[in-house]
Amino acid sequence: MPVRLAGTVLTLLLLTPVTSFAQGSSARPARFNVDVGLGAHLNGGDAESASFGYGLFRRLTLLVNVERNHVPTQVRTEAGGYSAERGGTLTFLSGEARFFIPIGDRVSPYAFAGMGVGHNRLNVSDVFPDPRTTTEDVSYFGGGVRVALNRSIAVFGDVKVILSVNRGGDGDLSAMVPLRGGLTWRF
User: Fold this and answer.
1) Count of C-beta atoms within a 10 Å radius of residue 22
2) pLDDT of residue 79
3) Model confidence over 70-96: pLDDT tens digits?
4) Distance between CA 32 and CA 132 in Å, rounded?
5) Beta-strand pair 32-41/178-186
6) 3-state class (DSSP) for residue 59
7) Is the overall model pTM greater than 0.85, yes or no?
8) How far apart are CA 3 and CA 134, in angstroms?
9) pLDDT, tens only, 8-53
């Protein structure tokens, strides 16, 4: 379902008429942006995200982000036993700040950090039969690059480290590292 939604958004954005890439003195700077991203985790799993942002300055954008990350349960057989790592689906809402370092008019490396809250629905399997959902405090940081295709459309790629802490009594800490690619519409 998220892939179909991303495809629909991408099609609509590409069909939207855009102005010339070169900005004249009368061109209004694009302050708002919508980002849609898809990715994968280094240890397996997938990530989907959508953000709405406002550029305070050319180099600083503040965003509201909704993201879903799924990591599968991993079971490894060892001599005399096995080890298992329970995965889950973490869905969260966060606030994010991105700091851009423009290189010319098209390429902009960036660093970002954010904080939010969400729910982690833990996977159920033969090894972990009990269904559980936890409330998580989420913080993350990372970096990437955005490349403008024209004044309104850009593509991006980034990597981030997501740390989530269970609000329950056990305070479990988990980490995820998704690699993402996506599309930005600026208006």
Assistant:
1) 9
2) 84
3) 999 887 788 888 777 888 999 999 999
4) 38
5) antiparallel
6) coil
7) no
8) 26
9) 555 554 454 444 444 444 556 779 999 999 999 988 899 999 999 9
Taken in order 56, 59, 62, 66, is the CA torsion positive or negative? positive
**Within a 13 Å sphere around the CA of 114, how many CA atoms are in the beta-carbon half?**
27
Residues 6 or more apart from 50 whose CB is under 8 A from it?
A: 34, 35, 36, 37, 65, 66, 67
* CA neighbor of 65 nearest in space, from 50, 75, 79, 55: 50
Please name each of the domains of the chain with its CATH number.
55-186 (2.40.160)
Q: With left for phi above 0 and alpha for psi between -120 and 50, is residue 23 left, alpha or beta?
A: beta
Q: Which 3 state secondary structure label does DSSP give 1?
A: coil
- What whole-number distance in Å separates Cα of residue 37 and Cα of residue 146? 12
Residues recorded for the chain: 187
Tracing tokens 């993402």 back to the chain, one arrives at 180
- First-last CA distance in the chain: 26
- Condensed to tens digits (0 to 9), the pLDDT of residues 96-148 reads 999 999 998 899 999 999 999 999 998 888 778 888 899 999 999 999 999 99
Which residue in the block uniquely carries the two structure tokens 């850009």? 154
Using DSSP's 3-state secondary structure scheme, residue 31 falls into: coil
Count CA within 13 A, CB hemisphere, residue 22.
Answer: 1
Compute, in degrees rounded to 10, the torsion defined by CA atoms 126, 132, 138, 142: 20
